[in-house]
Specification:
Blueprint: E1 4-6, E2 9-11, E3 13-14, E4 17-19, H1 20-27, H2 35-39, H3 42-53, E5 60-63, E6 69-72, H4 74-84, H5 86-108, H6 125-155, H7 160-168, H8 171-184, H9 199-203
Antiparallel strand pairs: 1-2, 3-4, 4-6, 5-6
Helix pairs in contact: 4-5, 6-7, 6-8
Length: 214
């Protein structure tokens, strides 16, 4: 929470609440405008109840000790200032508005996250084909492990856990690799007479793994 300054005086804060005693002193320290008098008003009690109804448990509280006094939430602080005088109400209201504007400015000048690094590589056609075939073998393995897992589970095999992991824990990796390979092979056509026949499986890939890739 950022600091609140009224008429060049820093207002003490406690758990998102502001010191009404500090405001009282800044406003002129009139006995008639003591926070205790304000707290007893029916309008103040009604405002506290309305704020509590929205989920704020303690919109106003009294503390003892060296940092003691009455502390209140922003809405009650503004109401307290308005009760003291229209002029003081305007001062406090503008202080909160300035506080909000400063927070917005600070958030606007936060450095943007750096763009992801990009790299450029040169691949031969044979290397691109090998990448797609490696992906195809990986996806085919996922389908195979998913197919045999129920059998090993039913047998109570100690391999069932490993088979489950191979069949179900790497699907996101296969999906991400598929998107990359689709992008870098978009200029190639499926040719059943060459190693580009693997593109049939790449283009027809089902990310949900409901449709076999082989």
């Amino acid at each position: 929470m950022s600091n609140l300054t009224i008429l060049n005086t820093a207002i003490r804060q406690h758990e998102n609440l502001f010191s009404l005693n500090d405001l009282h002193q800044v406003s002129g320290n009139s006995k008639n405008h003591q926070p205790s008098n304000f707290s007893r008003l029916e309008t103040t009690q009604a405002l506290v109840s309305a704020i509590q109804a929205e989920g704020t448990a303690n919109p106003i509280k009294t503390l003892r000790g060296t940092q003691g006094g009455t502390y209140a939430c922003k809405e009650i602080v503004i109401a307290y200032a308005a009760w003291i005088s229209p002029q003081f109400h305007l001062v406090v209201l503008r202080a909160f508005l300035n506080q909000l504007e400063n927070l917005q400015k600070n958030s606007e000048i936060q450095p943007l996250a750096p763009p992801p690094k990009k790299y450029t590589f040169d691949f031969t056609e044979d290397e691109l084909q090998s990448l797609v075939w490696a992906w195809f073998a990986f996806v085919r393995g996922i389908h195979t492990f998913r197919y045999i897992y129920p059998m090993f589970q039913k047998l109570g095999s100690n391999m069932a856990g490993t088979i489950y992991g191979q069949g179900f824990e790497y699907s996101h990796t296969a999906q991400s690799a598929h998107k990359i390979l689709e992008r870098i092979t978009k200029d190639f056509d499926c040719d059943p007479m060459t190693n580009w026949r693997v593109l049939k499986h790449l283009r027809g890939f089902d990310p949900s793994f409901k449709k076999p890739t082989f």
